[in-house]
Amino acid sequence: MKRFKDVEHLLRLAGIFLFALLAFAVARAELVPAGFGKYGHYRAPAIDDVRARPIAYAGQAACAECHADVVELRAKARHKAIACESCHGPLAKHVDNTDPLKPTRPVATPLCIHCHAANTGKPTRYPTVDIKDHAGTESCLSCHKPHDPRIVS
Amino acid sequence: MDSTRRDFLILGGKMFVMTGVAAAAFEHVLAGSPEKAESYHIADHWWAMLIDIDKCIGCGHCVRACKLENNVVDEAYYFRTWVERYHVDPLDINHPTVDSPNGGIDGFPETYPDGKGEKKTFFVPKLCNHCVDSPCTQVCPVGATFRTNDGVVLIDKDYCLGCRYCVQACPYGCRYIDPRTNTADKCTLCYHRITKGLQPACCEVCPTGARQLADLKNPNDPIHEFLRTHAVQVLKPQMATGAKIYYSGLDGSVR
């Protein structure tokens, strides 16, 4: 004699449960993006997406690799701590391929006064000039060399 | 079929366990191979920034460099970093006059007379504070913005819905909606640069060294010496966001 009678309806119910569980597992695997929850409540590969962005500024070390002469020239100058790309602009493409992307020379006076125009907000010990009094229409380059701006007579 | 209750339960249990294992294994298959070896280890870094107000000259180099490096929309109102000018009556620091013409991208016009001893004027560069417990990540309904284990708050642009909750949640006003993609955008601390050993674009071009990247997990970083010997402050400490942009010489009037 069978120990259990009428188990079929239980098996059917179990089948439905198992199917639902399987469907949930498949749906979850399909819908939750890859790497979600690996480090936290976010998509782990999103970190790599952000990192994949190409750089525009090459960085001072890259400039110094080829332009050691300018680095040496600036070593004792007031402008020594300023990165090349601060004035010359983003040049990562120039580092990748030097020939077709020769950087253009920055226009002196507008660039100089970006930092050195007199302004009440600037720290008092920072060297500033009123450009009209100081030079009139004369270019800054008439007296100052940008890499070593001190006037040596 | 001659099955017992015991057999049935065992079979059911096995199938239940197997389904879980299969689902877990399938997840691995989808995620691809384990991380490939690389030189940058997230666990070895904890990024922050130091801003020295006394050194900032308001030249706007950082704002320009940030826009060029990160391809930020070249219009006013879209800034990952910007510079504010404060003009404060020392006897009434609760009502500062603040301006930031086009984010300070072209510097600041000489607006205020040089009234020595009357009011003070100074510049405050601002950017995402990369908060440890940032409100912006807490409100995101889909997990599209998050703080990485090296302390940088990033946005998953593929996953962002553009719901704007985070823009409202940020107490520092550091987020905006990129009109090209209609997703949230903000400073990444130049994550693509700092993970390669470079400086963020704003720190790279700062002519006075007013902005400095700091790695708080690196014992040799000069930030530790600086933090020990200087009075520093973060913006809105009362918000308890765990902001990691440290300001040296920050005036009480700065909001």
Total count of helical runs of at least 4 residues of chain B: 7
User: Given the helix and strand composition of chain A, which structural class is it?
Assistant: mainly alpha
CATH topology of the largest domain in chain B: Alpha-Beta Plaits
Helix content range of chain B: 10-25%
Helix/strand order of chain B, N-terminal first: HEHEEEHEEHEEHHEHEE
CATH architecture of the largest domain in chain B: 2-Layer Sandwich
Q: Averaging pLDDT over every residue of chain A, what do you get?
A: 89
- The total count of strands of chain A amounts to 0
Strand % of chain B is 15-25%
| Domains of chain A, number | 3
Oligomer: heterodimer
Please, could you describe this protein's structure?
By secondary structure, chain A is mainly alpha-helical. Chain A folds into 3 domains: 9-51, no CATH class; 54-103, no CATH class; 107-153, no CATH class. In chain A, 44% of the residues lie in helices and 0% in strands. Chain A is built from 8 helices and no strands. Chain A has helices spanning 8-31, 45-51, 60-66, 68-74, 84-88, 92-96, 108-116, 131-134. In chain A, helix 3 (60-66) crosses helix 4 (68-74). Chain A is rod-shaped. The N and C termini of chain A lie far apart (119 Å). Chain B has 255 residues and is of the alpha+beta class. Chain B is built from 7 helices and 11 strands. Chain B has helices at residues 5-31, 61-70, 135-139, 165-169, 191-194, 201-205, 223-229, and strands spanning 47-52, 81-88, 97-99, 120-127, 145-147, 153-155, 176-178, 183-185, 211-215, 232-233, 245-248. Chain B folds into 2 domains: 1-34; 44-132 and 186-248, Alpha-Beta Plaits (2-Layer Sandwich). Mean pLDDT of chain B is 89; it is low at 33-37. In chain B, strands 9-1-11-10 form a 4-stranded mixed β-sheet, with no helix packed on it. Chains A and B meet through helix 1 and helix 2 of A and helix 1, helix 2, strand 4, strand 5 and helix 5 of B.
